[in-house]
Design brief:
With 75 residues, the protein is α+β, with helices and mostly antiparallel strands. The chain is 32% helix and 19% strand. The structure holds zinc ion. The site of zinc ion has 6 residues, from loops.
Length: 75
């Protein structure tokens, strides 16, 4: 019985941790240059090195249709 309770507690903690991970994933980095169409997990990604605009942090849900997919380097 006690092991079952521990199992449920562990499961709940994993779900909670994953939930906070998803919230962090909402914040992404983008280049505002005309040829940029991917978003990045990290500001230091080398995919942002040749950005011709500025590099800004955005919520992934507010990027608009210009940005089509995740970066394959940092994701
Ligand atoms: Zn990247």
């Amino acid at each position: 019985m006690r092991k079952e309770v521990l199992f449920v507690v562990c499961l709940a903690m994993v779900v909670l941790l994953c939930g906070s991970c998803d919230m962090q994933d909402d914040e992404v980095w983008i280049c505002t240059g005309p040829e940029a169409y991917v978003w990045h997990k990290t500001r230091n990604c080398r995919g942002l090195n040749d950005c011709s605009g500025s590099i800004v942090k955005r919520n992934v849900n507010e990027l608009g249709s210009k940005y089509q997919r995740k970066c394959k380097i940092c994701y």
